Predict the 3D structure of the following.
Amino acid sequence: MLTPVQALFAGAGSLRADYEGVDWAAGPLGPVEQWSQSLRTTVSICLASEFPILLWWGPDLVMIYNEAYRPMVLDKHPHALGRPGRDVFPEIWAMLEPMLRAVRSGRETTYSENQLMLLERRGFAEECYFTFSVSGVVDDDGSEGGIFTAALETTAQVIERRRLDLLRRLGALSEALDLQEVSSRALAALRDESADLPAVDLLLPAADGGLVAVEPAGELAAGLIPRQGAIEAPGSVRGAVPAEDRVVRLDVPIRGGDGRPAVLVVRLSDRLAADEEYLSFLGSVASGVGGALSASHQYQIERGRADTQSQLAERLEGLVSVAQLLGGAQTESAVLHVVTGRGATVLGAVGGVLGLRAGDGADAAGGLDGTDAAGGLDGTDAAGGVDGTVGAGVDGTVGAGVDGAVDGTVRLLSSDFLSDDLRAEIAVLPVAFPLPVVHTARTGEPLFLTDRAGTLELFPDAADLYARTSAQASATVPLRSGSVLMGSLSVAWDHPRDFTAADRDLLAALAALCAQALDRVRARAAERESVAAVQRMSETLQRSLLTEPPQADDLQIAVRYSPASEQAQVGGDWYDAFTTPDGCTSLVIGDVTGHDRDAAAAMGQVRNLLRATAYAAPASPAGVLAALEQAMSGLAVDTLATAVLAQLERTRTARGEEQRVLRWSNAGHLPPLLRRPDGTVTVLDSGDPDLLLGLDPATARTDGRAVLEEGATLLLYTDGLVEQRGEALDAGVERLRAALRDLGGLPLEELCDRLLDQLREHGPAGRGGAADDVALLAVRAHPRARAVARTSLPSSPASVSPARRFAVQACRDAGLEDLTDTVALLVSEVATNAVRHGEGDVRITVLAAAASVRIEVADDAAGAPVPRTAREEDEGGRGLALVDALSTAWGAEPAGRGKVVWFEVGA
């Protein structure tokens, strides 16, 4: 027959004897046979569970736990059975009791994961972690009974994860390549894990055979390293740990080194058992640190081996990039930019100078004595003295065997490692000037100067110039095109340095690339100049046949001529504008077939015949073209041409209102375009155009008619403005019509420029311009001026005041008193500009309309004024800005030999 105790604790497994040995009757719970059914049932569930269960019962929270829970209390068992919790866990009771009391009273249920508890269960306060769920149990009478706790110790898992994380971080240190960085980061990572490593120091092998601590050194290193900063490295320490200091010193082998290890010194945690697991972890830490240090050391070795090959490869790659960039260099400045930019970067230099020969002797082969002074690049190598390669005078200056006077100059192109002032000062120097770059440009002798002292020993007169630069060492090599010495290339460094054979070979290659590029630039420049000369001649001939248009008070006429971009030849396109004796303004646009001097000559004949015919026998446009056709046939002008002749005249309507009428006749040419004041654009096409000129003298010709309203714009043009390869002309005309619609509100001169700009951007020759000549004539109708006043004044500052008074009085005479203040200010600015920058007399014209005035200031200087932004301290430079701000419109146009600057004020 089992006793009540035996019966209740029969399922306690290995703890059965321990439970039977407890004097329950003497404890807070009393005899087992008096326990409530609720307590008995809960105990049975607890003991039968394979999961760790702890039961706290009664006001004293007496502990009852099962066999699975027993490893969590270690040496507190069996004393803990049947004892109040405060007696079993005094070290953590202050944390546990409030939680347990709250649960027992039914106020809450608690779940905690990886809860840290410092338990004294093996003779010291041990770092432990638990995951547990705590819930209340009600007694038979419904009162507070106890607390049911399902618990699991996670100490091993938490510590293992923490240690694995540290080892992973140590493994990642192999990505850092600098030994000092690796050791510093390793020490920082170790010190971050104070739970396992409360104190740690790392010591590296020192050059003197001892050890040196990685900074910042801690207490352990301070105790090990004597005053001189190094100690003898101890052997590997494993096994028993001295209880008095709990310090472990471990060797950290560095693979690939000199065999001496680093040393890791660690103070063990007081909260962890110094067991094999702990010491094994420390061994893994030492291995991790050693792996990172070894990887870094191995990298340093490999990097040292690779540096030479890498430098050679980089230099070769750099030379290739220099060659590619020089291939696109179009000017000497572009060559300088490449050689002293990318080229200097390849060499590790701070900048460079090109010395280009000019003047007498510039084309001499080799040196001035006719020999190839360079030979190779085995020239002068100075470091505080001369090695005998160069003939030196008694004063130490470089002689190079040059006898007699030397003529000519050297142009120096410098990169911005020299100041702007210094670059300007040495831009052109005599060939005998004491500078390495000039010396080599004169003699073809290379110079490799390892420091400034050596340089000034050879060139003492250059001391003041060198004091204004950062140059210390320099290398100067000749630039040759075949046997011709073109000049020299000098490269500078801001620190002393020696020059290896590889350095000299690289400089020779760079000089060869530079010389080839300069040769190409000069050849291209000569070719461009030759083409430009022919182009200028052609344009001069062409433009000599194109006169300036008349400018009536109520008409503005703008003209443009642009030769074909693909050839330097004259063509047959022309424009003309003139006034006939009957007061009509005649406008002509035409195109003679061909693109040569014959076409230009034929164009001149047709133009002059048309002008003479229209002037001598005024008739309608169709009548003039018919008479021209007869004259061409009779005078044997054997050519074909298209043309539009338009006439502008003022007539009156049946109601007596004045209007401006446009009549035109089209001889096989593209139709004119008329933009009305409302922005609509009409193609003036009265049907099929009449025959070309030169085909049939008997052909009938017709006129078209339109009214030219105030503000309307008429555009005559040749096919070069609209044609594109593979596209019908009608599409080009439509494109021009749309452009005129969109841009027609611009001032007339700007409109013409914008139309030509669009042609350059989208024309058949790509972005270079037109494939054919372009002639353009634009007319804008203005309100007829009510009054005109003109005067001419000498080009003198004293003329500005009379100019102002003249313009103001003209405005008053026209009844425009409210505009006089603005007119006075702007006339002063424009007249002052004409006096300062113009030529000849200053001519002023005032054109007054109903509510506005147009003032024109002319002089004989061709250059158009350029607006600029004045600085606050400037006394001038704001004139055109004022004109732009206060006028309703302004511009500048060529007129005869000079120009006209005009502005409008008012509505």
The longest strand covers residues 125-138.
